[in-house]
Amino acid sequence: MVAGEASGDLLAGLLLGGLTQRWPGLQSMGIGGPRMAAQGFDAWWPHHKLAVRGYVEVLRHYREIVGIRRQLAERLLADRPSLFIGVDAPDFNLGLEATLKSAGIKSVHFVSPSIWAWRGKRIEKIHESVAVLPGSRRSEVAYIAPSFLRTVALLSRQRPGLRFVLPVVPGLRAMVEPMVAEHCPDALLTLLDGRSHEALAACDATLIASGTATLEAALFKQPMVIAYRMNGLSWQMMKRMRYQPWVGLPNILAQDFVVPERLQDDANPEQLARDVLDWLDHPAKAEAARQRFIELHHLLRRDTARCASDAIAQVLDQA
After folding, report:
1. Fewer CB near the last or first residue (10 Å), C or N of the chain?
2. Which residue in 205, 176, 210 sits closest to 191, CA to CA?
3. Looking at the predicted structure, is the pLDDT value of residue 297 above 90?
4. 203-231 b/e with 16+ CB inside 10 Å = b?
5. CA nearest 35: which of 5, 62, 65?
6. Which residues are registered as beta bridge partners of 132?
């Protein structure tokens, strides 16, 4: 196992607790910290050797880190483990995992719900800001993004200085950029390559397409406006098939309209702008929604160590 910093040590320690319950005679070794050591882990190198952030700091320690990875790979290839588990530390672990996998050593990458952006610039929480998530499919973006971007333009006129971030799914940037130029060229809008979790963590409210991303937004305690547009015929068919009043996952799970839903013609810029401003202008209302999301989080909370152990057992059982 390799855990590269304190948060990884904490996560890996919890995971080792679940693994040792399943396999009492488990031997674990590699790079880790005190919480892993408390579970019987043999740390060949301390985890703080990898706990380096920032371009200058990484360059300063580059030779040492590369040397550790080379020595670790050689040791694991010479004395092959049943499984390698990389815990976060993607710069260090992903390349190592690829090397081990190519040699036939099973590998698992265990990721914590971290907000740290290990590629690119972090979004700093300075100005009032809105995350804009118009969907992850090309068809969704085609129907939803124009309305969302016109909403951005309207909000920019109504609230000068309001900032926006729009995470773009890989492969769709070329589709989104002309839409931005057409609908809101003067808005303080930043396009991100992926990094939706950063956007959700940094912003004050979210304008979001209905889908699984709404559940992620709820787990980030984000006051949101859920909207969706589709082909007119598809909309008529969907209306006939609806058997409950909600379409957004947070509302479905809460069995209540915790956040507004605007569908088809109701997902127009004027209405969406009103809904977004309602969150920004009423902090008590936004805080009440966050409390509902905390309740939802507890409802969805699961035994992570046990679930991860089950997944690892499946990997080990594979031929």
Report:
1. C
2. 176
3. no
4. bbbbbbbbbebbbbbbbbbbbbbbbbbbe
5. 5
6. 207
Task: Look up residue 151 and give its two tokens.
Answer: 């909403």
Instruction: Average the pLDDT over 249-257 and give the result.
Output: 83
**What is the spatial distance between Cα 86 and Cα 92, in angstroms, rounded to a whole number?**
9
Q: Comparing C-alpha atoms, which of 35, 58, 60 is closest to residue 46?
A: 35
Outline where the chain has alpha helix (H).
Answer: 6-22, 34-37, 55-60, 62-78, 90-102, 138-158, 173-183, 196-202, 212-219, 232-241, 249-254, 269-281, 283-300, 304-317
- If 0-12 CB within 10 Å is exposed, 13-18 middle and 19+ buried, where does residue 66 land? exposed
- Which pTM value belongs to this model? 0.56
Q: Does the domain at residues 129-300 carry the CATH identifier 3.65.10.10?
A: no
Q: Which amino acid is at 55?
A: Y
Model confidence at 38, pLDDT cuts 50, 70, 90, reads: very high
- Of 47-61, 76-90, 130-144, the one with minimum mean pLDDT is 47-61
DSSP 3-state of 165: strand
- Inform me whether the pLDDT recorded for 225 exceeds 50: yes
How far apart are the C-alpha atoms of 10 and 32, rounded to whole Å? 10
Q: Which residue has the tokens 């509302």?
A: 251
User: CB neighbours of 169 closer than 8 A, spacing ≥ 6?
Assistant: 136, 194
The 10s digit of each residue's pLDDT in 150-180 is: 999 999 999 999 999 999 988 899 999 999 9
What pLDDT is attached to residue 251?
86
Q: What is the pLDDT confidence band of residue 223, given thresholds at 50, 70 and 90?
A: very high
Look at the block and give the residue holding tokens 């919480």. 35
The CA-atom distances, in angstroms, between 135 and each of 115, 125, 192 are 20, 24, 14
Degrees, nearest 5: CA angle 123-129-134: 90
- Total residue count of the chain as it appears in this document: 319
Residues 48, 69: Cα–Cα separation, whole Å: 14
Amino acid sitting at position 34: P
